[in-house]
Amino acid sequence: MRLGVNIDHIATLREARGQLEPEPSFAALLVENNGADSIVVHLREDRRHINDSDLIILKEVVRLRLNLEMSVSSEIVGIACKIRPEQATLVPEKRKELTTEGGLDVKNNFKRVRNAVVKLANTGIDVSLFIDPDKKQIIAARRAGVSMVELHTGRYANAENKKEENRYFEELKTAARFAKSLGLKVFAGHGLNYNNVSKIAGIEEIEELNIGHSIIARAVFVGLGRAIKEMRELID
Ligand code: PXP
Fold it and tell me: For ligand 1, is residue 187 a contact (CB within 6 Å)?
């Protein structure tokens, strides 16, 4: 199972001081050298962490796949088409949210999503849609023309008790199986940490996990290299 590491919070720390360090591309090199498979960053419309020049530098220095999380806004789609990361993951975006809340509602925003998918795909970018583990959204994603989806694991990760956790785990398992049966590659992420990742890593249909906050938080204490290796071991 592949591991994508989201390094947005390296830039969050830099922005806390408005200075130049820590530098996201240094983190990207450590991610590369410690067993991860892709670098993930989210260029938000409000540029609260990763900014346009980070993206240009990352595209230059990163040898792994660069997976750009992004909204369907035409400004951001235009930037992605210029920079051309290997992959774009379309996510919903609200200005005031702390992090991505819920999956993209592909079903009710079909035209906008489809237009963004077509533009990105025509530039040679692989496009994934970040959706809730919901049959209707999976069908809409397939219709939108993507070959991959990332299932939102937030409800599972934030479950308040074992019973809820089991219910949301089963929901993810069923969704992963269904998406794969439609020929989609299946990824997952959001809220995964050192305690809850193993169960998700056991879902056969999931090919890739994308993890940010918990790895960067652990890196504060043990260093980024070790934090990634520990997560890698749990997934394996
Ligand atoms: N996948 C997607 C699509 C996301 O938007 C995020 C958050 O940026 C993640 C994965 C990683 O979530 P977390 O930081 O909670 O690990």
Answer: no
